[in-house]
Fold this protein.
Amino acid sequence: MPSVHLADRGVVRVSGDDAKTFLDNLVTCDLDRVSAHIARLGALLTPQGKILFDFLVFQAPPEIGGGYYLDVLRVFAPDLAKRLGFYKLRAKVTVEDLSDSLAVVAGWDAPRPDEDVGFVAEDPRLPALGWRAIVAAQDAAEFAKDPADTYHAHRIALGVPEGGRDFLFGDAFPHEALMDQLQGVDFDKGCYVGQEVVSRMQHRGTARTRIVPAVYEGGFAADVGVEVTAGGKALGKTGTGAEGKGLLMIRLDRAEDALKAGETIRAGGIPVRLLKPSWIGFAVPGDEVPPPSP
């Protein structure tokens, strides 16, 4: 059973009498769909609808103090805690960066561990990602059976992007980062920061730029942040890659036009073939569906 300690992840706790209402008014996911056994992908956006932070939300049971724990990229945990503090006003909430005392671990291809290890849930983005847990920092080593690169290769092969790796914070809309496909935006909840822009994109279908998975010719993936082109024209940028597969943030309409014109899409100069995993609901240029795993 592969399991990893994701040392690049941190934890921000939001607790207090008003914690649920406070967060629900700010983030893209519906806190009614988060429980002690069910996590949720969410994000805090700018008023213009762009992602400032993305995270997985866990809820602690009342018998151990309750509150919500946000699994976030560790380098951004202090900034997230500070930003949430700006919104506190008179709300009865406490926001704490607990990244030194808590750790994030993940595993797949086996049942999730018992809940006595910490907060454990199926990864809410995609079942194939496996399970995710927040544990005491001193216990993280027992889950570090494999290097973190193993997890990222697994994630990339499934086509699942992560903020700070596959898109820049403050630069991408939730639709561009596939949050609408990965249960990261609840369109039937009430207002939250940036909600009007996100709802308009959903109802008008105006997301022309998307992250899509791809296979590199030759088995080598390009570096992060290099240009994706076709026929000498820019389509977008590369995200992370591993084992000959990668994620690309591209303009779908331009990619479609290039393929119709017989052009080859290249990422960092390497020819790539776009893929459409079964969980993606929008059309991908070329409409290539990978075969099921053996």
In short: The two ends are 17 Å apart (CA to CA). The helical segments are 19-24, 77-86, 148-158, 195-204, 252-260.
